[in-house]
Design brief:
alpha+beta, 2 domains, homodimer, three-stranded mixed β-sheet, DNA-binding
DNA sequence: ATGCTTGCAAACAGTTTGCATCTAA
DNA sequence: TTAGATGCAAACTGTTTGCAAGCAT
């Protein structure tokens, strides 16, 4: 609305890269993907555009250990992250829009959204952990 | 239970520092507080112990832009963070324990907890923002 | 005495920034 | 033509780690 934006080849490639991933890639993942299609793109451009896309609400970022994970924003949903290996998956819990309002009223904040992150250990790491725990 | 721990002066000071703050301090905040009482303590010790206390579940950490914020763990609760200035406050929304179970069943993860972070703009930043928006 | 802990400094990871160059509009 | 965008490299921030010395047990 207020800021001018240009349609650069790089910008398109980056958004495209996020679109084409069903997992929750890190900035580095996106960089590597895009790099595949454009040898000369730099990390700075990827970071700059990811942040831009986030501000535009085209994508969201999930704060996970080892860096932010990005997600094409189709609808609000929760995430589950493995505290061992950092894997992020989507959760099937419904987004509670009413909570935003009640928090806004209680705190005076303007709430734009909320994100729920479940922390735990993924099946793969559980298996690995049980071996270690046997000592 | 399994790991040996020693009661060092530094460890006590760090836990004490977290106890004595009602806000949500960063590791640096804690470092500065403890530094007040022990001239020679190092950042490394603070980071190491905060992480240790987190593993012990004595404290929790909230991932906020600009670094993790620590919180004495009295009971599980949600947080509200200002996307402008980074302030973190507690939210009055009840913790939904049932959600952990349902996510665990749906995903196969072992869920230890979940944290909900509301994002928005705090009253102070709203005021500041309106001035800027007037352009 | 043993080995967990510390302090220091250097290493590290993820991200941001300054600047000259490039390019969409 | 010109302001936004890029690529590069260097800077930065928050955090971790290796190691020798220290101290709780």
């Amino acid at each position: 609305m207020s800021v001018q934006r240009r349609n650069t080849k790089q910008r398109a490639l980056i958004l495209d890269a996020v679109r084409n991933r069903c997992d929750h890639p890190t900035a580095e993942d996106i960089y590597l993907d895009v790099r595949h299609r454009d040898e000369r793109i730099s990390r700075a451009t990827v970071y700059r555009n990811l942040r831009l896309l986030e501000q535009t609400h085209a994508i969201t970022c999930v704060k996970a250990p080892g860096g932010d994970r990005f997600d094409l924003r189709l609808d609000a949903h929760c995430h589950v992250v493995c505290i061992e290996c950092g894997t992020v998956i989507d959760a099937t819990v419904p987004y509670d829009k009413a909570a935003d309002q009640s928090v806004a009223q209680a705190t005076g904040f303007t709430i734009t959204s909320h994100s729920t992150i479940f922390e735990g250990v993924c099946p793969a790491c559980q298996a690995r952990g049980q071996v270690k725990a046997a000592n």
